[in-house]
Amino acid sequence: MAFFSKSVQGIAARGSRASPSPSLSHLNQTPFPAIRSRTRSIPGRRNFHLSAVGDAVLWTADSITFIHHAGLPWFISIPLVAVGVNFSFRLPIQYYTRRLVVTRNKLTPLVTAWSSRHAATVPQGQGEDAARLWRLRVAGLTERSRARIYKSWGVQRWKSFAPFLSMAPFIIVSEALRRLCGAPTGWLSHSFGLVDIQAVSSAVEMSRRYLDESLVDGGCLWFTDLTAMDPYYALPIICSALLARTSWGRLSKDQLRALLSVSPPQMPQTPATRIRTAVGRTLLLVPLFPILFADLPSAIFLYWASTFALNDVNEAILGRLFPQKSPASLKPTPKPAAVLPYLRGVVDSKEQPGPNR
Taking the model in full, what pTM does it have? Predict the structure, then answer.
């Protein structure tokens, strides 16, 4: 045992007298933030999904330029791009969302039946507080039954966020047009690595690389220069009007009154209802979005106006595919005739015995 203890002490002493290795000493002297910054600066460490979005922007810019070089002017090529994006992405997503709404409307009687059952089974106390607690319990049980029914039929509430997927091609095409117009670099380019943040000269050089000078005189009417902003602010106002017609026009007076009301609701609301109300109030501000970015090039607003105008086309197509059934068109089923008239005291005239018989 003494031999082993002496050998261990000797090894430890030699290790302490020896100079540390370069790699370990470098790690001991280098602070941790410096190591993190150095690993971040290594090329090729960018996430693949971010680089894919950047490549999609550049590929979209090349595709738009190809459509123009096929012989079409810019004020026709840009609306054609909007038509292609609409029928490739937006219309299928809206069709899927409309199917969800139609299926949920068919399930409304079942949800109402479960609500009546919960209202009958939950005991109701005396007083206002007891009545309020009873309504909250019934609303919670009804919402739980609704979620179970929607899950069984594959129409969960989270699927209602599918229209937000159409924002991806909308933003990508807008960013591609911004690069073709040579506008100042936006947030998307900085985030997805389309420009070098550390060198401003490289950003300017890249903007010149993708700038298409034919956009300067590629417009029409009052916006002949598509690389400049609309001097009369007509295109931003048109986009805002189209958005207001699409979003505000679908709401009834009662829905607008409920969204704009500041007073607390009379009936208790579930968390899902509160979330829908908050989202609806946020969407009321969407028509102001184009006016806030009125300094963007006219080419972007031309694409936006074409996209927003196609909402009416999509609604017409979906109206043909999913016609609304009005309550007046539902005729009541005729009651079948009585099979045994004798039970009602009615005898056929042919079967009645004559006076001579």
Answer: 0.66
